[in-house]
Design brief:
The chain contains eleven helices and no strands. The protein has helices at 2-32, 38-59, 84-93, 101-109, 114-149, 158-183, 192-212, 219-222, 230-250, 257-276, 281-315. Helix 1 packs across helix 7, helix 9 (230-250) crosses helix 10 and helix 10 runs antiparallel to helix 11. It is globular and about 60 Å long.
Length: 317
Protein backbone atom coordinates (compact mmCIF):
# COMPACT_ATOMS: atom_id res chain seq x y z
CA UNK A 1 0.00 0.00 0.00
CA UNK A 2 2.91 2.35 0.71
CA UNK A 3 4.02 2.08 -2.93
CA UNK A 4 0.52 3.06 -4.06
CA UNK A 5 0.61 6.27 -2.01
CA UNK A 6 4.20 6.87 -3.02
CA UNK A 7 3.40 6.74 -6.75
CA UNK A 8 0.07 8.56 -6.36
CA UNK A 9 1.69 11.37 -4.39
CA UNK A 10 4.51 11.70 -6.90
CA UNK A 11 2.18 11.87 -9.91
CA UNK A 12 -0.17 14.37 -8.30
CA UNK A 13 2.73 16.52 -7.10
CA UNK A 14 4.44 16.43 -10.51
CA UNK A 15 1.28 17.47 -12.36
CA UNK A 16 0.18 20.13 -9.88
CA UNK A 17 3.64 21.64 -9.35
CA UNK A 18 4.46 21.83 -13.06
CA UNK A 19 1.02 23.39 -13.57
CA UNK A 20 1.59 25.97 -10.81
CA UNK A 21 5.25 26.79 -10.25
CA UNK A 22 6.64 25.80 -13.64
CA UNK A 23 4.17 27.97 -15.52
CA UNK A 24 5.38 30.92 -13.50
CA UNK A 25 8.85 30.09 -14.82
CA UNK A 26 7.84 29.28 -18.39
CA UNK A 27 4.94 31.74 -18.68
CA UNK A 28 6.90 34.48 -20.50
CA UNK A 29 8.43 31.83 -22.78
CA UNK A 30 5.03 30.36 -23.65
CA UNK A 31 3.42 33.77 -24.09
CA UNK A 32 6.05 35.14 -26.44
CA UNK A 33 6.22 31.90 -28.48
CA UNK A 34 2.50 31.20 -28.69
CA UNK A 35 2.65 30.93 -32.50
CA UNK A 36 5.08 28.01 -32.33
CA UNK A 37 3.74 24.42 -32.02
CA UNK A 38 3.39 23.39 -28.38
CA UNK A 39 5.43 20.23 -28.92
CA UNK A 40 8.47 22.26 -30.03
CA UNK A 41 8.43 24.17 -26.74
CA UNK A 42 7.83 20.94 -24.83
CA UNK A 43 10.75 19.18 -26.56
CA UNK A 44 13.08 22.07 -25.72
CA UNK A 45 12.19 22.21 -22.03
CA UNK A 46 12.08 18.42 -21.77
CA UNK A 47 15.67 18.14 -22.99
CA UNK A 48 16.76 20.41 -20.12
CA UNK A 49 14.61 18.46 -17.66
CA UNK A 50 16.25 15.18 -18.66
CA UNK A 51 19.71 16.72 -18.36
CA UNK A 52 19.14 18.21 -14.90
CA UNK A 53 17.55 15.05 -13.49
CA UNK A 54 20.14 12.62 -14.82
CA UNK A 55 23.04 14.90 -13.84
CA UNK A 56 21.71 15.22 -10.28
CA UNK A 57 21.15 11.47 -10.10
CA UNK A 58 24.75 10.72 -11.10
CA UNK A 59 26.45 13.45 -9.08
CA UNK A 60 24.47 12.94 -5.86
CA UNK A 61 24.37 9.13 -5.93
CA UNK A 62 20.68 8.84 -6.75
CA UNK A 63 19.50 11.99 -4.95
CA UNK A 64 17.64 13.95 -7.63
CA UNK A 65 16.74 16.72 -5.16
CA UNK A 66 20.37 17.96 -5.13
CA UNK A 67 20.50 17.46 -1.35
CA UNK A 68 17.46 19.61 -0.58
CA UNK A 69 15.53 16.75 1.03
CA UNK A 70 18.17 15.96 3.66
CA UNK A 71 15.97 17.59 6.33
CA UNK A 72 12.78 15.91 5.06
CA UNK A 73 12.82 12.16 5.79
CA UNK A 74 10.39 9.90 3.97
CA UNK A 75 7.55 9.02 6.39
CA UNK A 76 7.22 5.40 7.46
CA UNK A 77 4.57 4.50 6.61
CA UNK A 78 3.61 6.91 3.82
CA UNK A 79 -0.19 7.06 3.80
CA UNK A 80 -3.03 8.86 2.04
CA UNK A 81 -2.75 11.91 4.32
CA UNK A 82 0.32 13.05 2.39
CA UNK A 83 -1.54 12.99 -0.94
CA UNK A 84 -3.95 15.73 0.18
CA UNK A 85 -1.53 18.69 -0.36
CA UNK A 86 -1.06 18.16 -4.12
CA UNK A 87 -4.83 17.72 -4.46
CA UNK A 88 -5.30 21.05 -2.69
CA UNK A 89 -2.71 22.55 -5.02
CA UNK A 90 -4.66 21.39 -8.08
CA UNK A 91 -7.80 23.00 -6.67
CA UNK A 92 -6.11 26.33 -5.88
CA UNK A 93 -4.30 26.42 -9.24
CA UNK A 94 -7.62 26.15 -11.08
CA UNK A 95 -8.50 29.56 -9.60
CA UNK A 96 -5.18 31.11 -10.64
CA UNK A 97 -3.83 31.31 -7.07
CA UNK A 98 0.01 31.30 -7.11
CA UNK A 99 0.50 28.81 -4.29
CA UNK A 100 3.93 28.11 -2.88
CA UNK A 101 4.37 24.41 -3.48
CA UNK A 102 7.36 24.43 -1.13
CA UNK A 103 5.14 25.35 1.81
CA UNK A 104 2.16 23.29 0.73
CA UNK A 105 4.01 20.05 -0.04
CA UNK A 106 7.18 19.96 2.04
CA UNK A 107 5.90 21.38 5.32
CA UNK A 108 3.54 18.43 5.74
CA UNK A 109 6.55 16.11 5.73
CA UNK A 110 8.46 18.14 8.33
CA UNK A 111 6.48 21.02 9.96
CA UNK A 112 9.51 22.01 12.04
CA UNK A 113 11.22 23.37 8.92
CA UNK A 114 8.45 25.89 8.19
CA UNK A 115 10.10 28.84 9.94
CA UNK A 116 13.39 28.46 8.10
CA UNK A 117 11.66 27.98 4.74
CA UNK A 118 9.41 30.98 5.34
CA UNK A 119 12.32 33.19 6.38
CA UNK A 120 14.32 32.29 3.28
CA UNK A 121 11.29 32.78 1.03
CA UNK A 122 10.40 36.22 2.41
CA UNK A 123 14.04 37.19 2.04
CA UNK A 124 13.74 36.01 -1.55
CA UNK A 125 10.70 38.22 -2.13
CA UNK A 126 12.43 41.25 -0.65
CA UNK A 127 15.68 40.72 -2.52
CA UNK A 128 13.89 40.10 -5.83
CA UNK A 129 11.77 43.24 -5.33
CA UNK A 130 14.77 45.45 -4.56
CA UNK A 131 16.94 44.01 -7.34
CA UNK A 132 14.17 44.30 -9.93
CA UNK A 133 13.21 47.81 -8.91
CA UNK A 134 16.85 48.91 -9.03
CA UNK A 135 17.62 47.27 -12.38
CA UNK A 136 14.42 48.48 -14.02
CA UNK A 137 15.12 52.07 -13.02
CA UNK A 138 17.70 51.79 -15.79
CA UNK A 139 16.12 49.11 -17.99
CA UNK A 140 12.73 50.83 -18.20
CA UNK A 141 14.33 53.99 -19.58
CA UNK A 142 16.91 52.41 -21.85
CA UNK A 143 15.13 49.28 -23.07
CA UNK A 144 11.51 48.81 -22.02
CA UNK A 145 10.48 52.18 -23.41
CA UNK A 146 12.06 51.24 -26.74
CA UNK A 147 10.43 47.80 -26.67
CA UNK A 148 6.97 49.30 -26.16
CA UNK A 149 7.40 51.98 -28.81
CA UNK A 150 8.66 49.44 -31.36
CA UNK A 151 6.10 46.74 -30.57
CA UNK A 152 4.70 46.84 -34.13
CA UNK A 153 8.12 46.53 -35.76
CA UNK A 154 10.05 43.32 -36.57
CA UNK A 155 12.23 42.09 -33.71
CA UNK A 156 15.85 41.21 -34.43
CA UNK A 157 16.45 37.48 -34.76
CA UNK A 158 19.11 37.41 -32.06
CA UNK A 159 16.44 38.11 -29.43
CA UNK A 160 14.93 34.68 -30.11
CA UNK A 161 18.28 33.02 -29.41
CA UNK A 162 18.73 35.12 -26.28
CA UNK A 163 15.27 34.26 -24.99
CA UNK A 164 15.66 30.53 -25.54
CA UNK A 165 19.02 30.69 -23.79
CA UNK A 166 17.55 32.67 -20.90
CA UNK A 167 14.70 30.18 -20.60
CA UNK A 168 17.10 27.24 -20.55
CA UNK A 169 19.11 28.93 -17.79
CA UNK A 170 16.07 29.82 -15.67
CA UNK A 171 14.37 26.45 -16.17
CA UNK A 172 17.49 24.62 -15.02
CA UNK A 173 17.78 26.80 -11.89
CA UNK A 174 14.12 26.30 -11.04
CA UNK A 175 14.39 22.53 -11.45
CA UNK A 176 17.35 22.36 -9.07
CA UNK A 177 15.38 24.39 -6.51
CA UNK A 178 11.95 22.77 -6.82
CA UNK A 179 12.54 19.14 -7.78
CA UNK A 180 12.50 18.45 -4.03
CA UNK A 181 8.79 19.35 -3.95
CA UNK A 182 8.03 16.55 -6.40
CA UNK A 183 10.50 13.85 -5.39
CA UNK A 184 9.73 14.14 -1.68
CA UNK A 185 7.30 11.23 -2.25
CA UNK A 186 9.98 8.88 -3.59
CA UNK A 187 12.98 7.19 -1.94
CA UNK A 188 15.81 9.63 -1.25
CA UNK A 189 18.24 7.48 -3.26
CA UNK A 190 16.53 6.48 -6.52
CA UNK A 191 17.35 3.29 -8.37
CA UNK A 192 17.69 3.34 -12.16
CA UNK A 193 14.16 1.93 -12.45
CA UNK A 194 12.74 4.76 -10.34
CA UNK A 195 14.73 7.28 -12.38
CA UNK A 196 13.35 6.05 -15.71
CA UNK A 197 9.81 5.85 -14.30
CA UNK A 198 9.88 9.35 -12.81
CA UNK A 199 11.40 10.88 -15.94
CA UNK A 200 8.79 9.28 -18.17
CA UNK A 201 5.91 10.43 -15.98
CA UNK A 202 7.19 14.00 -15.70
CA UNK A 203 7.68 14.31 -19.45
CA UNK A 204 4.17 13.01 -20.12
CA UNK A 205 2.54 15.30 -17.55
CA UNK A 206 4.49 18.29 -18.85
CA UNK A 207 3.28 17.51 -22.37
CA UNK A 208 -0.33 17.61 -21.16
CA UNK A 209 0.15 21.03 -19.56
CA UNK A 210 1.98 22.48 -22.55
CA UNK A 211 -0.78 21.22 -24.84
CA UNK A 212 -3.26 23.20 -22.71
CA UNK A 213 -0.92 26.20 -23.08
CA UNK A 214 -0.75 27.41 -19.54
CA UNK A 215 -4.02 28.15 -17.82
CA UNK A 216 -4.98 30.52 -15.05
CA UNK A 217 -1.50 30.83 -13.51
CA UNK A 218 -0.04 32.20 -16.73
CA UNK A 219 -2.27 35.27 -16.29
CA UNK A 220 0.03 36.37 -13.45
CA UNK A 221 2.67 36.90 -16.12
CA UNK A 222 0.52 38.23 -18.95
CA UNK A 223 -1.17 40.82 -16.70
CA UNK A 224 2.16 42.62 -16.25
CA UNK A 225 3.51 45.37 -18.50
CA UNK A 226 4.75 44.18 -21.91
CA UNK A 227 5.63 40.64 -20.74
CA UNK A 228 4.45 39.13 -24.03
CA UNK A 229 7.28 40.94 -25.81
CA UNK A 230 10.06 38.40 -26.34
CA UNK A 231 12.69 40.97 -25.36
CA UNK A 232 11.01 41.79 -22.06
CA UNK A 233 10.49 38.10 -21.33
CA UNK A 234 14.19 37.48 -21.93
CA UNK A 235 15.24 40.09 -19.38
CA UNK A 236 12.80 38.71 -16.79
CA UNK A 237 14.15 35.19 -17.24
CA UNK A 238 17.80 36.19 -16.91
CA UNK A 239 17.20 38.25 -13.75
CA UNK A 240 15.03 35.54 -12.17
CA UNK A 241 17.56 32.84 -13.00
CA UNK A 242 20.44 34.68 -11.37
CA UNK A 243 18.39 35.32 -8.21
CA UNK A 244 17.60 31.60 -7.93
CA UNK A 245 21.26 30.77 -8.54
CA UNK A 246 22.21 33.07 -5.65
CA UNK A 247 19.81 31.31 -3.28
CA UNK A 248 21.13 27.89 -4.31
CA UNK A 249 24.45 28.95 -2.84
CA UNK A 250 22.80 30.63 0.16
CA UNK A 251 21.57 27.39 1.77
CA UNK A 252 20.25 23.91 0.99
CA UNK A 253 16.91 24.59 2.68
CA UNK A 254 14.11 24.67 0.07
CA UNK A 255 12.41 28.01 -0.53
CA UNK A 256 9.33 29.34 -2.29
CA UNK A 257 10.24 30.31 -5.84
CA UNK A 258 6.69 31.67 -6.10
CA UNK A 259 7.46 34.45 -3.63
CA UNK A 260 10.68 35.28 -5.45
CA UNK A 261 8.78 35.46 -8.72
CA UNK A 262 6.03 37.80 -7.55
CA UNK A 263 8.64 39.93 -5.79
CA UNK A 264 10.56 40.33 -9.03
CA UNK A 265 7.44 41.25 -11.01
CA UNK A 266 6.36 43.69 -8.29
CA UNK A 267 9.69 45.53 -8.28
CA UNK A 268 9.64 45.64 -12.07
CA UNK A 269 6.12 47.08 -12.18
CA UNK A 270 6.93 49.80 -9.63
CA UNK A 271 9.98 50.95 -11.59
CA UNK A 272 8.12 50.95 -14.91
CA UNK A 273 5.15 52.80 -13.42
CA UNK A 274 7.46 55.41 -11.90
CA UNK A 275 9.50 55.97 -15.07
CA UNK A 276 7.09 55.37 -17.94
CA UNK A 277 3.67 56.16 -16.36
CA UNK A 278 2.01 53.31 -18.29
CA UNK A 279 0.07 52.55 -15.12
CA UNK A 280 -0.47 54.84 -12.18
CA UNK A 281 1.34 53.96 -8.98
CA UNK A 282 -2.06 53.30 -7.43
CA UNK A 283 -3.00 50.82 -10.16
CA UNK A 284 0.40 49.19 -9.81
CA UNK A 285 -0.05 48.95 -6.05
CA UNK A 286 -3.43 47.28 -6.51
CA UNK A 287 -1.89 44.76 -8.92
CA UNK A 288 0.91 43.95 -6.49
CA UNK A 289 -1.53 43.68 -3.58
CA UNK A 290 -3.66 41.27 -5.60
CA UNK A 291 -0.69 38.97 -6.26
CA UNK A 292 0.44 39.10 -2.63
CA UNK A 293 -3.10 38.39 -1.42
CA UNK A 294 -3.35 35.31 -3.62
CA UNK A 295 0.07 34.07 -2.55
CA UNK A 296 -0.79 34.71 1.12
CA UNK A 297 -4.01 32.73 0.76
CA UNK A 298 -1.97 29.85 -0.59
CA UNK A 299 0.46 30.21 2.32
CA UNK A 300 -2.42 30.13 4.81
CA UNK A 301 -3.76 26.91 3.30
CA UNK A 302 -0.25 25.45 3.34
CA UNK A 303 0.27 26.20 7.03
CA UNK A 304 -3.17 24.84 7.93
CA UNK A 305 -2.55 21.57 6.10
CA UNK A 306 1.02 21.32 7.33
CA UNK A 307 -0.03 21.16 10.97
CA UNK A 308 -3.52 19.65 10.68
CA UNK A 309 -2.64 16.64 8.52
CA UNK A 310 0.19 15.22 10.68
CA UNK A 311 -2.03 15.63 13.76
CA UNK A 312 -4.90 13.87 12.01
CA UNK A 313 -2.55 11.10 10.86
CA UNK A 314 -1.46 10.50 14.46
CA UNK A 315 -5.06 10.30 15.64
CA UNK A 316 -6.02 7.55 13.21
CA UNK A 317 -2.99 5.35 13.99
Amino acid sequence: MAYFWMISGFLLAAYSIVGNDALQILGPFLSSNEKKPWWVLWLFTSTILIGILTYGWFIHQGDISYGRLSAFPLPDPLNGIYVIPPLALLFLTSFGIPVSTTFLILTVFEPGNLTEMLTKSLLGYGLAFVVAMGLYQVISQLLEKTFIESADKPIATYWSFLQWGATAFLWSQWLIQDLANIFVYLPRQLSLVWLVFSLGMMLALQAMIFYQHGGEIEKIVTSKTNTQDIRSATLINFIYGFILLFFQQYSQMPMSTTWVFIGLLAGREVAIAFNLQIRSLRETGNLIFKDISKASLGLGVSVLLAFALPWFSQQIH
